[in-house]
């Protein structure tokens, strides 16, 4: 991938620049004083032709047991929800919709989901890339790693970050940082699923 990621993953401490970019993208939402109709936000893209129980293919291009467990648990959790589509492992697919790997990086994100562009509301080439940063995620528990993976899959579905607390309007894996870790037993939660359903 010659292009840098378009969107950072879960962050413990957002950089000012990225906060600015997010605000610039969603000025109307972030600076409104009106009560939000919902918490979720959408990214530009989504998977093409996914509805009902259609498969969304994924493959690991490089993965260790720890992050395999995190991702595998996360895709399984998403599949238990009523969000459209289900994640299907396709070992021999040369061009899966989700390509997953783990790597040590100097950047301070826990993980990143990236894409090559958006065309008419769909991911270009119907493809996203998820990278887990083994350098920054090392200290997270297995459950926390799984929640980070659920967050990245939320991006893959086309969800952007949301900024509310566990209590108002409720937990969401799309919340950034450590706050979501104490929100309850497991995600994805109501707002996440609602956001995906609204997208598809
Ligand atoms: Zn994120």
From TrEMBL:
InterPro entries: MetalloPept_cat_dom_sf (IPR024079). GO terms for molecular function: metallopeptidase activity. Keywords: Signal. Residues 1-39 form the signal peptide. This is Peptidase M10 metallopeptidase domain-containing protein.
